[in-house]
Structure formats: C-alpha cells, structure tokens
Amino acid sequence: MSFKTIIYKLFSCINYYYYPTTLTRETKTVLQDRYRVSFTPEEIDFLKKSAATFDYHTDYTDGYWQKALYTVRLAKVTLLGNSGALVKQNKVIAESTFDAGRLGISPAYRSPAVMWNRHKPGLYTSVFHLPWAETSNFHWFYDCLPRVYILLQQVKEPVKLIVNQNLPAFQLETLQFVITDYPHITVVYQPKTAKWEIEHFIFPGFVTNHSSGFLPARIAHFLREKIWQGYQVQPQNAKTRLYISRSKARKRRILNENMLTEELVKLGFIIVHAEDLTYAQQVQLFYNAAIIVAPHGAGLTNILFSKHCRVLELHPADIMKPHYFLAAKALSFDYFYEMGSKADANLDFTVNVEEILKKYKMLLST
C-alpha cells in the first residue's frame, strides 16, 4: 500500500477530504442546454451598480448564462450528511457543492467531521444543500427544489430521494407538493452525522448561478403551479399591495422604517412580517399581490408565488444584490429599485421616503 493511499484512508476516517474532482460533460444526460439571457440598457445599468459593490466578483453585465439542466448517473459514491456533497474515490465532486466557489467553504471540504458510515444498496438521489438551505427559503426554492424538476423529467424508475433529517416543515411540505403524482419517488431521511456509501446515485445539477433567482420558465411554471395547488391558493378580485418588513430580523433592516410604512399605509399597503405567518399564508398573500415593496432579504423569495406583480426593492447604496432582480426578470415581472444610505455593520440602512414614493408613482405609470 502506497504512502498516498495510507494518507487517503486516514483522512477518510475523520471525513477529511482534501482534493476536489469534477464531472465530465460526457457523463451528463442533458435535458436543456445552457443559454444566454439578454438585458435591456436599463437592466445592464442596474447590474453594473450591483457588480461594483461586489468588486466585480459576481458580474452579469456582459451576459448571464443559464446553466444546462442535466443529471449524471454515478456508481459507488458517498453522500455526506453534513452538506449533501458527494465524494468519489476520496475526492469531493465540486458540482455537488454548487460550484468551485462554494466548495471552498463547504463543510464537506478540508474540514474534519464526525459522520458514521452506512452502506446503502439501491438507487438514490438527493437535492439537499447544507448549510445554505438548512433553514433558508431562498436557497431551498432556488438551489434545491428546481433540481427535483430535472429528476422528474429524466428518472422514471423507482428512486429514493434523500433529504436532511431535520428538514424544516415548509421545505418538506413544498417537496411533497412537487412530487405529488410521482409515486416512484420515495423520500428518505439522512442525519447530518451520517455518510452513506451508495451503490447507484443520480445527481441532478444545480439550476441557478451565484446571487441569482433566475429560473428557466419551464421550471418556474412547474414549481409555481404545484405549490399553488398544494396550498390551495384562492384568487381574489382585489389585488393587494405589500410591504415586507425586516424590523424583526437581525440585519438588513431599514432604520427609518416607521416613516416609510406610515406613508405606505396611506396608499393602501399591508405591512407584512413573514416570520409571523405560516408558509401557506405567505404564498396566498404573494399570489394576490399586485405590488411588492421590500428591502433586500429572504422575504422577496416569495415573488416566485405571485401570479403577476411589480417589485420595488430597497438596497443600501454600497450593497446591491441582484438575486431578486434576476428572479423578477425570469418571471417577466416589472422590477424597480431604490438606493438608500450605506449599510452599517449590521447591514442596516436608511432610505429617502420621498424618493421611494416618487419611484412608486413611476411604477404605477408603467
């Protein structure tokens, strides 16, 4: 036994994986090839401002490429319960951690962990993605659940879908809605402290890119319909106007929010604290919303469930994230934004209420 092999085995005993590997294109069964998304001059202007706040690490001004939709069939891989990452021959498959960027900060990579080994015969798949989607609605609805769509299109034989044992209720609910009518999919649960050696595994590629809520139309339509049906949303004649507050959050709050909401209430807005609502209530509210105003944050994830709305997102001047601009773009929703002050250490900021009201009037006129 070579010295290198001995080191690999020692690292494996403490679940320490030092090397990455990647999937080759030849192994992929492609459902849809990648394609380029074009932007208007106004949209490019927003993306330039956004890229500048990230020192151009995430820059879509020269074009946004929607990833190819694909699956890969793998034999003898290990699924790590602490992350959802896959290991093949003691190397972490980079694509199973989203991409090389997230690989570097994934608990699967160069980070020892206590996980107990279990052998699992049969055919399995998985879409969980930790720690990002552990409790997050954004990462669940954009990083995880869209991958189920690919599986449903390409996998027809019985398969066990592995999820995190501590899956939040809203994630399990919406997963069950999506796989309704697909009895060949069975949900099984994996603890974070387990690693499963799996004989046969189908890996569905991630759909979204960094800092992006852009979903291909076929996936967005499928998820929306399934979740509307699951929560039994009811159309209403009177469309609502929502302001999504972050006053109960720990960061990204608007410091002068009381001044803003006082004016918005006069205009017929409902002030929403998403954390006080069930997910069914959130989906119902967003379904009937015509206009949504909100500071950047997870509450805007739910524009995915709006029948049709216009979005006005509030950003601090020095941190403009494109997640929900791209989500709105994919859904053909009108998107507007307003910049406030620079963010403080908690990412809190103030806004110019008069400028927001002007932008709101502009939104109404489009």
Automatic annotation (TrEMBL):
Keywords: Glycoprotein, Glycosyltransferase, Transferase. InterPro entries: Glyco_transf_61_cat (IPR049625), Glycosyltransferase_61 (IPR007657). It comes from the Bacteria. Residues 138-308 form the Glycosyltransferase 61 catalytic domain. The keyword Isomerase does not apply. Pfam families: Glyco_transf_61 (PF04577). One of its GO terms (molecular function) is glycosyltransferase activity. Coiled coil: none annotated. This is Glycosyltransferase 61 catalytic domain-containing protein. It comes from Adhaeribacter pallidiroseus.
